[in-house]
Amino acid sequence: MKTGRITSPQQLWRTQFDRQLTDEMSERVLKQTIALVRKVESKTPWRDVLTADDRLHAVIVKTLDGRLRWDPSRVDLERFFLGAIAGEISHELERTKKWQHVSLDVDNQNADDLERETSDSIEAARDSKQEVSKHAWWSITMAEFRRVAGNDTAVLAIVESYSRDKLTRRDVIAHTGMSSRQYHAAYQRLMRVAQKIDDGVRDLIMQAIA
Amino acid sequence: MTESQRDLRAFMAIAQASAVEDAKLMPTTPDIKNRAHAIAEMARDRLASLAREERAKRPSNVVSGAIRAAIQALNPTQVVARLTELRAQHPDMAFAHLDYAHMTDEDLRSALEDAESLIERGD
């Protein structure tokens, strides 16, 4: 034979992508996305205008055309996709927060009014960044989360790791110095706290932004 | 990073972790199955198309003229089918390539030419 097998980094990457992208994995990410959107919608006034399918489709396309960079040695494709979807929702939440004072009921106002209101809102957001962030929905949720977690230092340590972008089990363990067993136990408690604050927190948010 | 941004990261990380747990309890309906399959198919199609584009750009190391016309006339699917057939017929023969996915069309034809030549020579 005249040719040897060529394995460029791109080919290795594609092999990994192809191997990990199964129908079952797609099902899991689709369900995780549906659950994630429900979760965020239940705790914030944000409403998704896209479907879970659209979201998964978009991150796959962005990953394949290089707009999103997946490193197979760091994270598996399933987790990467959900993380990318969560990242996009996170940006939307921030944008929604900044624009929340702008009325989008264009039927009742002319373009000039809308433009003026929009500019005023941007100006106000620029002038009082502290105030915007102080009342962010996610900050209200996190304050409630910390209150319910009480003095469970291990749970709070995981939350602190998350807030510093240490999102994987490996990164959290490295950041907190917990043992694998301690992490596992704390993670279970964290899930229970998350479950506990599901009800009620929306009322708090609505009161805060009313 | 502001306090608010840190809170948002933590909020989304917890929402994400909870979503993974919730999804485990969610039934996989036929509708979800179909939708997931369509998305995975789309991804596989795009991946194959990327691989084809890259193969087309890659220079071939095949010496021109060394491949017989009958093989040159075959399309890649036919070449792979013939190689697979030869592998089944000659299990003792050593094939350099067991995975044809990353080979250029020219390299595929070259591999078939080599295999056919070896068989004809009785090697």
Describe the structure.
The complex is a heterodimer of chains A (about 210) and B (about 120). In chain A, about 70% of the residues lie in helices and about 0% in strands. Chain A is mainly α. In chain A, α2 (about 25-45) packs across α3 (about 50-65), α7 (about 135-150) packs across α10 and α8 packs across α10. Chain A starts with 8 loop residues before the first helix and ends with a helix. Chain B has two domains: about 5-55, no CATH class; about 70-120, no CATH class. Chain B has helices at about 5-25, 30-55, 70, 75-90, 105-120. In chain B, α4 packs parallel to α5 (about 105-120). Chain B starts with a helix and ends with a helix. The model of chain B has no long low-confidence stretch (mean pLDDT about 85).
Describe this structure in a few short sentences.
The complex is a heterodimer of chains A (210) and B (123). With 210 residues, chain A is an all-alpha fold. Chain A is built from 11 helices and no strands.
